Amino acid sequence: MEGAQSHLDSILRPDRSSTGYEIWNRFLETGSAGRRPGQGRRRATTPNEDHYLVLTARRHRIMNATLLQQHLRSATSTTVSTQTVRNRLHGVGLYARRPMVYVRLISRHRRDRRDGSRNNPTFVHESVRFGGGGVFLYGGISIDGHTDLYIIRDRHLTARRYRDDILRPIVVPYAAAIGNDFILMDDNCRPHRANLVEDFLFEEGIVRMELPACSPGMNPIEHVWDALGRRVAGRQPPPQTPRTEKSSSGRVGQNTPTRN
Fold first, then answer.
1. Are the C-beta atoms of residues 151 and 246 closer than 8 Å to each other?
2. Beta strand 183-184 with 207-208: parallel, antiparallel or unpaired?
3. What DSSP string runs through 105-151?
4. What pLDDT was estimated at residue 217?
5. Statement: the pTM of the whole predicted model exceeds 0.85
6. Which of 175, 189, 180 lies closest to 140 in space, CA to CA?
7. Cα 232 to Cα 225: distance, rounded to the nearest angstrom
8. Is pLDDT at 38 greater than 90 in this prediction?
9. Phi and psi of 207, rounded to 5°?
10. Are 162 and 189 within 8 A, CB to CB?
11. H or E element: which one contains 207?
12. How far apart are CA 118 and CA 111, in angstroms?
């Protein structure tokens, strides 16, 4: 019996250094294993300070935890962490994030808003792309001279138009004036390389360079276009319409030298 009693005591009375011993003594003293009131770490703030934090947060809804911490320190000389401030606010249901409330838009609403924004005069900024209207020109140069500038109307050049309006009236007489040493170098664009253009040049006996140079240093026509553009832009008063720009380009083209 004594052995059984000592064994029972060892079970009912655990080691003094264990947590179970403290809980057992608390149960014997209070009749409950729960924590006694007032035990644990003391709160860093008083109820009045908690009320001050909540009141300040509700009055100034854009304040963060750091600003509320500074306000509490300046008002009560109590320094707490920002996490403590958040804990006090969370305790009364104040959180930094809140659900967004918005009007649900259907496809018709989106379409009407898009059309309204597009047609609103406030959102329309009038502008002219690429500097406004321009002139589409054709011109040829050689060592000792140049052809007349041909204005391509409607800015649309086809192979047939290139043959009938440029090659036959401009290039063929110019090639005949130069002689057998004439070699045509074009820009290698699609109208220049069409089959009907090749047949026409073969019939007229005009030799064309098969691989024109792409480098501006080897293709001097690029420098001529650059000089022509600068001279037209430098005229006073500058041309304001495509018609005046055409006349200015024609006059400048006649006076543009082919040699530097």
1. yes
2. parallel
3. P-HHHHHHHHHHHHH-GGG-----GGGS----EE--B-SS-BPPPEE
4. 66
5. no
6. 175
7. 11
8. no
9. -85, 130
10. no
11. strand 207-208
12. 11
pLDDT, one tens digit per residue, over 83-100 is: 999 999 999 999 887 666
User: How many other C-beta atoms can be found within 10 angstroms of the C-beta atom of residue 219?
Assistant: 14
How are beta strands 150-151 and 183-184 bridged, if at all?
Answer: unpaired
**Token output for 26:** 């608390």
User: How far apart are alpha carbons 119 and 202 in whole angstroms?
Assistant: 56
Q: Phi first, then psi: what are they for 35, rounded to 5°?
A: -70, 145
Give the integer Cα–Cα distance in Å for 29 and 33: 10
Q: What is the residue type of 47? A: P
Q: What is the pLDDT of residue 131?
A: 59
- Per-residue pLDDT tens digits for 117-134: 777 777 777 776 665 566
Q: How far apart are alpha carbons 176 and 68 in whole angstroms?
A: 93
